[in-house]
Amino acid sequence: MERLAAVARMYYEEDCTQNEIAGRFGISRPMVSKLLKEAKRQGVVTIQIRVPGQTETGEKKDLLSLLKQKYGLAGGVLVRGGAGDVATNQAVADAGLAYLERLAGEGRKRFGIGWGHIIGELVGRIEGSPRPVQMGEAICPLIGNSGAGLKNYHSNELVRVVSEHSQAVPEFIYTPASMASEQELERTMDLESYHEIRRAWERLEVALVNIGNFPSVPDFASKARYGEQLVRERAAARILNYFVGEDGHVLRSETDYAVQIPLELLKQVPCVVGICSANTNPRALAAALRSGYIHVLIAPEPVAARLTES
After folding, report:
1. How high does pLDDT run on average in the chain?
2. Does residue 50 have a pLDDT over 50?
3. Does the pTM exceed 0.90?
4. Angle, nearest 10°, between helix axes 117-127 and 155-164?
5. In terms of pLDDT, which residue wins out, 171 or 227?
6. Helices 85-105 and 117-127, interaxial angle, to 10°?
7. 142: helix, coil or strand?
8. Can you give the pLDDT at residue 51?
9. In angstroms, rounded to a whole number, what is the distance separating the alpha carbons of residues 277 and 118?
10. Hey, what domains does the chain have and what are their CATH numbers?
């Protein structure tokens, strides 16, 4: 039943073709057709015909339309909540991967990816895929590497996994995510390796960025970069390792020595895909969307639905 639901969701809600679904599950296209028919027979899928103009369209598309209108989004996928956060995040990761592959199929060649739990989940789905995935011709990190032990924050490792399971050539970044001083940051930015990754950022066609919460108690690294500024100016969200205020403005600090794609280059990327997890605070998601940097949203529907309540 879970497989029937997954196939039906990709076909009816995410607009994937039967060939795309067959490739995702490693089965034949006729088998996909059989599964869709079985989903109808089992009641997993029900079809309701509405006369145009008589009633509203389906709830999910209405919600996405509202978000597109409210925040200027170009598109996205809203994923129904699963049995728990783990199942929901897996579904979000699958939807994100399907959307990225669709962009690659449309001819987008140069991809960049951020870090974080939900992006790590997506990369894990790529690693476990029974087939090579489509991820353009080149893939690079959007941010330096974390010193933490969590693999989801090791940018080069995420890029390496994507490259090994696709035909995308990897471009790595050879710096930590944050420097200790302005002088250290300046020396890093003078290195040829930094110039190479910057040139990769300048040529990006798709950027996948994480949308995360601002912690109620700032961690040591963010306090070192901003002091009390994040609390004082009511930081609400993270995009990559940028902090965003409730009104969508990105908070800047003279002691912020982070190494990540500059905002002026992120602004130039034709398609920035923002992805968030089941535990993303709606306040954080709203702030990130107000920033204007996100073009496409991949999110759990219960989180996104709360953005239209006020």
Report:
1. 88
2. no
3. no
4. 30
5. 171
6. 70
7. coil
8. 35
9. 6
10. 1-47 (1.10.10.60), 53-308 (3.40.50.1360)
